[in-house]
Automatic annotation (TrEMBL):
GO terms for cellular component: GINS complex. InterPro entries: GINS_A (IPR021151), GINS_bundle-like_dom_sf (IPR036224), GINS_Psf2 (IPR007257), PSF2_N (IPR056784). Residues 208-248 are annotated as: Disordered. Its main location: nucleus. Residues 78-180 form the GINS subunit domain. Residues 16-73 form the DNA replication complex GINS protein PSF2 N-terminal domain. Keywords: DNA replication, Nucleus. This is DNA replication complex GINS protein PSF2. Residues 224-242 have a biased composition (Low complexity). It is found in: Nucleus. It comes from the Eukaryota. It holds the Pfam family Sld5. GO terms for biological process: DNA replication; double-strand break repair via break-induced replication.
Length: 248
């Protein structure tokens, strides 16, 4: 699968139920135990259904049939134990990017575990292996966010964060932190506007002129006026404001 970059829309919050709902349109392979003609849904046509003849259908339909004992669900190839071990090893080797897994891999696996755990070969190995993959990916996300915090502490401007091959549920988990953190990063890291800089220069010139004209009377030297409109990065010249917070 080709690598993909996800842009997170922080202004469009979703619930965990919505994340699972979106995943239910993903196709999975099943072997039905009944006979039926082709069926049509909004997402397309599926079937016909014949006993012991595998067919691809949406996840939500597969879950429904499995609950009625009318099919067997075939877990996707990426849920194979050996493959998950390879994914974990690759995640360990490359600490800067993520292995390309299906966008809804967590939701798909969770749904299959819930209704068709007996259909998963080596379940007692697959489940913990998948959890290991999830955990190492979350550790890498935390490290990435720590790096962003470090950039801000060094006065580097952060306007957006791109994640390569991050999944839907991983986005959902980190969204609350990103919303707050990026607001802080922007507030402390933004650069002053041209007009703010001009006002600051004018204020400093007035103070310099006043200082020169009153050099003989230092006691009457006026204090500089505040520079209205200057961003935190320009106003706090004594040192950058650092705001870091580690993801739970």
């Amino acid at each position: 699968m080709a690598a993909s970059t996800t842009r997170i829309n922080l202004a469009d919050p979703v619930s965990v139920d919505e994340v699972f709902f979106q995943a239910e349109d993903e196709l999975v392979r099943v072997t039905p135990t009944f006979k039926h003609d082709e069926v049509e849904f909004i997402s397309g046509r599926f079937g016909p259904f014949k006993p012991n003849v595998p067919v691809e259908i949406p996840l939500w339909f597969a879950v429904t049939l499995r609950k009625r004992q009318q099919c067997k669900i075939h877990p996707p190839e990426w849920m194979n134990y050996d493959h998950l071990k390879e994914v974990y090893a690759e995640e360990q080797r490359d600490t800067r990017t993520f292995v390309d897994l299906p966008f809804h891999y967590i939701e798909i696996a969770s749904s299959i575990f819930k209704v068709a755990s007996e259909d998963v070969e080596d379940l007692h190995h697959v489940r913990p292996a998948l959890e290991d993959v999830q955990n190492i990916r979350m550790d890498k996300i935390r490290q990435g966010l720590d790096n962003v915090a470090k950039m801000v502490s060094e006065d580097e401007l952060v306007t957006n964060i791109n994640f390569t091959n991050i999944s839907a549920m991983e986005i959902y988990i980190i969204r609350p932190f990103l919303t707050k953190a990026l607001n802080e990063f922007y507030r402390f890291g933004q650069k002053p506007t041209d007009s703010a800089i001009r006002r600051s220069i004018a204020t400093r010139r007035r103070y310099s002129d006043a200082l020169s004209s009153s050099s003989a009377h230092p006691a009457s030297t006026p204090r500089p006026a505040a520079d209205p409109g200057v961003g935190a990065a320009a106003a706090a010249e004594d040192g950058p404001v650092v705001s870091t917070r580690k993801l739970r």
